[in-house]
Amino acid sequence: AVYSSEVILIADGLMSRTVDSDLKCSYGGEFKTALNTQIFFAVWDKVIEDGRFRFHGWTVKVDPDCVFFPDRLRTVLRSHSVTDSKGVYLNNCRMGLHGPLEGF
Predict the structure, then answer these.
(1) Which of 2, 72, 84, 96 has the most Cβ atoms closer than 10 angstroms to its Cβ?
(2) For residue 100, what pLDDT is reported?
(3) What average pLDDT does range 63-72 have in this prediction?
(4) 55-60: long-range contacts at Cβ-Cβ below 8 A with a sequence spacing of 24 or more?
(5) Could you tell me which of 51, 55, 20, 25 has the C-alpha nearest to residue 37?
(6) Angle value at C-alpha 93, between 14 and 4, nearest 5 degrees
(7) Over the stretch 8-63, which tens digit does the pLDDT of each residue have?
(8) Do the bridges between strand 17-18 and strand 3-4 make them parallel or antiparallel, or are there none, so unpaired?
(9) What pLDDT, on a 0 to 100 scale, did the predictor assign at position 87?
């Protein structure tokens, strides 16, 4: 699913889902990154509400400015299995939650 502040046609048969946020934030902190915690919460609230993640082994958060190739990620994910009932978090950034692509 694609989440946005408004319904947008992504491709034939694929519309974005709306979240309760204007998706705007300021920038700052040590790394001058987006201070988007509230947006993050709004989107994940919608992901949980929609419940579609329950039908898949993995959920991927992709920033809008990220180039994402699902087939390449599938190759990486084959080497990871979820044996812990708490799940697995794949971190692609040594600094923690700064990555434009995160797998859960």
Answers:
(1) 2
(2) 77
(3) 86
(4) 57/82, 58/103, 58/104, 59/103, 59/104, 60/101, 60/102, 60/103, 60/104
(5) 25
(6) 25
(7) 999 999 999 999 999 999 999 998 988 988 998 999 999 999 999 999 878 888 88
(8) parallel
(9) 72
Amino acid at 78: R
pTM of the entire predicted model: 0.74
CA distance to 11, 74, 81, per residue, from 40 (Å): 24, 24, 26
> Which ranges constitute the DSSP H helices of the chain?
37-50, 70-77
Residue 30, token pair as written in the block: 């040590």
Residue holding tokens 């694609």? 2
Task: Estimate to the nearest angstrom the gap between the alpha carbon of 38 and the chain centroid.
Answer: 14
